[in-house]
Every structure is written in C-alpha cells, then in structure tokens.
Protein: Peroxidase
Organism: Mycena rosella
Amino acid sequence: ADYQWPSLQYDALEEFLYEGTRPDGSSMAELVQPCKMRGGTNTTVAAEWVRLVYHDVATHNASDGTGGLDGSIFFETNRTENVGAGMTNSLSDFQAFPNKYVTRADLIAIATVWAVATCSGPVIPLRGGRIDAEAAGPTGVPDPGDSLQSLTDNFAKQGFNVSEMIQLVACGHTLGGVRYPDFPTIVSAGSNPSDSVVDLFDDTQQFDHNIITQYLDGTTKDPLIVLNQTMASDRRVFGADNNVTMQSMSTADSFSSTCVTIFDKMLNTVPSSVTLTDEIALLPVKVSAVQLTVGTTQMQFQASVRIIQSSTSTTVKMYWCDRYGDAANCTSGLKRFAAPGSSSTVASPTSNAMNVTLKKYQFVVPIDASQSVAKFWFVVDYGNGTTLVADNGGGDYVVDQDDVLWVPRLSTAKSVLTGQSGTLVTAAVKNTSTPSRVYMDCFGRATANYIAVNATYDLALNTSIPAVAGYNFYTGTATDDFGLTMSFDLYSVAANGTAAVDEYRQAGLIGVALAAVSTVNTTTSSSVGGASGASGAGRAGPSWGVLGLLGVWTLANLQ
Ligand code: HEM
C-alpha cells in the first residue's frame, strides 16, 4: 500500500534509518560514521556491530522457527561464544536508542545497514517489526575450532546452505579481525600484552572484496586461515565448495550484490512468529514533529517537513486550514501560511551512501484557539521552476483533534539529580468539556535491564495553573522508570465515553527548544493546494486587497 502519514512505526523506522537520530536529535549514527575506528583498537565500530548482529542471528533454528534477530544477544554477553569487548561496546552503543516503534532487534538491523554503508559498502534493504526477546535464547554460535561438517550443519540449522554460508562469512569477515585478548590461541600478544591487538581479516577497514581476492590469490593474512590451523574456520568455510562461491564474488560488483542479498537474508532471519514490515524506503517528503500545544498565552502548532534537496535556492512554506469559524477547512478559500523558523540538514550512513541531501524545515506558528488547525500541507519551490504541493497524497496532513494536547513546557523529565519521583506530564484539556478521566499510557524500551515497561497513570485537574486560550491543565506523574526514550499517549475521556488522544508524545522532547515562531499570513490562491479550498475563493470579500498583496509577496519570496 502507498505510504500515508501518519504511520507511526514506518515514520519512526524511516527517521532513524535515514536521519540517524532519535526524535530528540541524539545521534546513534555519529557513533559509527565515517567508518570510525573503535578507540583503543585497530578495528572499527562497524566491525563490532556486524559481528554482534550475526551472533544474535546464529542461534536461529529454521526447523522450529525459534531464535534469530530478536535482541536476545543483550542477555548473552557472559557466554564464551560472545567473548570480547566488541560485544559489550556495541550493546552500550545501542542502549539509549530503541523506542516504542524501533525495537532493540530492529535497531541492531539498522546498525548493520549503517555499518556496511559507512565503510563504503552497499545499501542493504531494511524491514522493521522485529520483536525483542526479554531473556537469553539458546547457545550455538559457530566456533573457529569447529569441523567443516559441524559448521555446515550449524549454518543449515540457521537456514543457510553451503554457498550461503560462504557468502555470509566472507561478507562479514571483510570487516574487522581477531583480537589477542579474545583469542590468544590464534593471535599473538603485542609488545605490550595488555594491548588489544587485532589481526585484520583483510588489509582494509572497508566493506570491500579484498577478503575474496586476497584469499584467491594466496596473499591473505586472514588469521582464521593462516594462523592456528585447528582454529582455521575461514579456511574450511571458504574452501567448502572448491572455491566456486568465492570465485563467483571476486569482483567489486559481484561481491557487493552478493552481500546485499545475503545480509538482507541475515537481517530477516527472525522467529517465525514475527511478521516483518515492507521495506522501509526513503520518503521523498517526510512530515514529523507534528504537535499542537498550548503556549504561555496562546495555542502553538509545530511541524517539520524533510525534502530531498536538489538546489540551495529551495524554499518551503507550510499552509493550513482553520478548524473552526468562517474559514474552517478552507471552505471559504482562505488558507494560512508561514515560512519556516529554521532548517537543518540531516543524514545517516544510509542517506549518505544513497547520495541524497535531506533538508528539514521546522515550523512553529501561533494559533488562535477560536480557529485552531484542521489540516496542513507544504508547498516546496525548488527554485528551478518546479513546485511541489506536498499534501499527503491529496488528503493533506490531518490534525485529528484539539481536545487534549500535551504541554511540554509544563512537563519535567525525571531527573536523578533532583531526586524527582518521576516524569511530570501536563495536558491541556479544552474547558468546553468536563472529561470523566484524563490519563496516559506510558511506554519505555531503553531501560537499564532491557525489559520494556508499560504503565498507565491518571492526570488530575490542576487549578494552580491558570487556564490559557480556553484550556485547563491536568497533571500526572509517570513514576516507573521508563528509561531514556519514554513515550506516552494522552487520553481525555468525555462523559459519553468517547476518548480523544494525543498519540505518541516523547518525553525526550521536554525542554528541547522550539524553533522561532513564524509570522502567519493568509492567501486565497488556489494554486497552493488545500483540497477543498479552491472553489470558495470568491467569498473572501473585503480581504481581497490585502490578500492580493500577500500573493505578490509570496511570489517574490519564492524567487
Ligand atoms: C564460521 C562462522 C564464523 C566463525 C567461526 C567466526 C569467528 C570469528 C572470530 C573468532 C572472530 C574474532 C572475534 C574477536 O576477536 O573478538 C570474528 C570476528 C568477526 N566476525 Fe566472525 N565468525 C563466523 C561468522 C561470521 C559471520 C557470518 C559474520 C557476519 C555476517 C561475522 C562477522 C565478524 C566480524 C565483523 C568480525 C570482526 C569483529 C571486530 O573486528 O571487532 N562472522 N569471527
């Protein structure tokens, strides 16, 4: 099906994959790009991440459908088969980033896609929807001392035939190497035995076909081939079909395309109870950070739009229709619009590898509560004669409700420093309704013990906060420890039982400064979109003169 906003899971996975950040801007991508070395070693962060994903996948049992990429590795680092600082480093890299819609297991998959891309490798497709294990799974990661038969049997159990086994190991072992502290029977100590000497599998840190060519031409220094022959698993694996598979991936292109296919299969090796999403493709226009709230004296609306930038003279404007009054839903033809308050370039290893420049425009506008907001859209002028009306496939971006709204400025995040008992959440509830209940469903996944937390708390009318713009304030405290990416859905239940919800609000945005508030303009132009706006233009009456001028101003601004 075609993408339609909002689509919470797709939106979250897409943002993470292509922008590299949590919704509050904290970047996981920065930890790995550009093909960063891991401090104190001569291997890369990317290599550590790729070894980790395979160790999570390797315990899959294809015949009974258990195990696979389910994040169980978080509970398995004390096992000999998962030896090494590479594992614990990676898990602490990942700790702060999973959220309600990006599971820990999806995060490991995204990390793999980035690791390959940032070390000059290809872009591996990504699906989401993996479900997190909350306990250790079975053991069974292959050991360098295993016989070929036992390696082949093990990979068959995981769902990989002999040539897939060769492909997977070769694509994995183009990164990183073997460490003395972890495998002292393979790698020798350096002059200082406490150094973490890493003998690389091939002579580059890049995701390249050197691992293959150096094997085929006999110049390989792969420690799992040339050192301790009891532990020479790469020798046994690579030669398992008389080099047919290795020969078939010996060019840059065949290596790259083979690795895309086999890594895709590895990332999609999940328990049979999991249904993965469609592939998370880059959205050409991406709307995010949408929030209607109540400021100190009036309502405020904010939204961001991200586009693929093709020219630096691009300008973007946000348009919207009122929710109430004469211009409700733009039926009178009147639309409001504003220029962005700020803009920024966002990127991840994936978008960098795709060679796209992603530019995000942030809008924050004052809203008259008697008008509110019904729906919004954007007009992108690329500065080269092309204009795009970004209207969510024709239906515009609809603001569901304005009965219950999160108020970040009156909320405070749990702080260890102040000994605060929890996260204080304030909701604005329209004073035309007397809700029978106001409550929040809270969720956290980035917890210290890797177990997701879910709990509900009531909010109570708080008359110590004076009403603003026709809204009363309700406060409540989420007392459980929800970890670093707490989110919540805020509900207001009316006397008749119908509930309004401000969905997927993120505590991480408490205290994140809003962009400057932009000036609001109006227009009746039909060329700027607004599904039902065009036909009613004639009713604008006395405002025409002003609107005409604004029209000119808009055009001048776009040039
Ligand atoms: C026959 C199966 C395999 C065996 C016996 C094996 C064995 C090893 C060993 C002994 C190390 C050194 C780890 C250390 O010193 O801490 C290693 C590193 C690594 N393995 Fe494998 N491996 C196998 C398959 C794979 C697969 C299928 C992948 C990924 C698709 C993979 C990815 C990696 C990476 C990227 C490293 C480097 C880690 C770093 O530099 O920190 N391995 N492997």
User: Anything to note?
Assistant: The pocket of protoporphyrin IX containing FE is lined by residues 43, 47-48, 50-51, 54, 84, 86, 142-144, 151, 168-169, 171-173, 175-179, 182-183, 198, 233, 237 (CB under 6 Å). The CA atoms of residues 230 and 292 lie 64 Å apart. DSSP finds 13 helices and 19 strands in the chain.
